[in-house]
Amino acid sequence: MTDDVWLPFRTDEIEGLPKGLEYRYWDGGQDFPADPADCVFYAVPYMKRQDVKVRPLERMRNLRVIQTLTAGVDDITAHLPSVVPGVRLCNARGVHEASTAELALALILASLRGIPGFVRAQAEERWQSGFHPALADKSVLIVGYGAIGAAIEDRLAPFEVARVARVARRERNTARGLVHPLSRLSELLPDADVVVLVTPLTEETKGLVDAEFLARMKDGALLVNVARGPIVDTKALLAELESRRITAALDVTDPEPLPAGHPLWHAPGVLISPHVGGPTSAFWPRAKRLLSSQLNRFAQGEPLENVVLTTGG
Predict the structure, then answer these.
(1) What is residue 313's predicted lDDT score, i.e. its pLDDT?
(2) In the chain, is it the N or the C terminus that has fewer CB atoms within a 10 Å radius of its CB?
(3) Closest-CA residue to 149 (of 134, 137, 165, 161)
(4) Banded model confidence at residue 1, pLDDT cuts 50, 70, 90
């Protein structure tokens, strides 16, 4: 048996990998690069279907680490019962903050300033001027204030927003101010002009944005989802959009991919991007640095970063 490391990058693409490990390149292809039973460190291929990502797991009987290249790990946690005990599951904190925060800001600005309408008018060679809301002087509520939420706030700072409210699972203080607990969300919603969702998908947050949540949003508010589709009740959101009371910008949907003919495609006041918060040119160098760092820690027996959980017996 060898101590195999499965990577979705070739070794000559990653600087600083430790010696003493056997590196196997696997990016989700049909054939495995070696016996999965020899794999001790599994770096999950990025932007592959869930069934591809989890396919080797039950055969990895000597596995010690699962390293995702995504911020969320919900597509892996559902399959952990088939994984041996003692495996550390790590997420990609530090990889996606820049890209996802950029997209969140782009969706906010495009939605407020009417960019989708300009694009449609350009295709029709029609000069469509008008008066649109600015981000300046708006109140923004960030739901799920972790590393990505903080990165979004960093990028909001130059835009002269009136205030930023922050919500996470537990109350805490940060350099930028208080983070409110999730229990206070309902009282914060009515004051927000823009509500940005960046919370992980868990049993607690699934369906969090339901009819009651949406009803508490102020008239004319914008809902931005760069988290996971199932956090939002699609039927409830459609009802609000069709009433034209609020607008939405969605990088993720439920279902996803959004099928042809789904009413969300043509709902009034919605901007949809196809889950592109993470995959940008900023991903590659950050992902490779994370893998190099984690593997050096692993080889030296040091504590790993970004450990979400350890599988039990």
Answers:
(1) 56
(2) C
(3) 165
(4) low
Beta bridge partners of 24: 6
Closest CA to 158 of 132, 136, 134: 136
**Other CB atoms within 10 A of residue 20 CB:** 6
pLDDT score of 3 more than 70: yes
Nearest partner of 222 among 106, 107, 99, 102, judged by Cα: 107
Tell the residue number behind the tokens 């988290």, with chain if given: 227
Checking if the pLDDT of 2 tops 90, the result is: no
Q: Which two tokens stand for residue 273?
A: 């991007």
Integer Cα distance of 29 and 98 in angstroms: 29
Q: Which residues are catalytic?
A: 228, 256, 275
pTM above 0.85, yes or no: yes
CB atoms within 10 A of CB 219: 9
Residue 142 near residue 152 (C-beta atoms within 8 A): yes
What's the N-to-C CA distance of the chain in angstroms? 23
Is the bond preceding 257 in cis, omega lying within 30 degrees of 0? yes
Buried b (16+ CB within 10 A) or exposed e, 263-290: ebeebebbbbbebebbeeebbeebbbeb
Mean pLDDT of 198-215: 96
Tell me whether the omega of the peptide bond preceding residue 81 falls within 30 degrees of 0, making it cis.
Answer: no
Q: What is the pLDDT of residue 78?
A: 87
Can you read off the two tokens belonging to residue 53? Answer: 């990502």
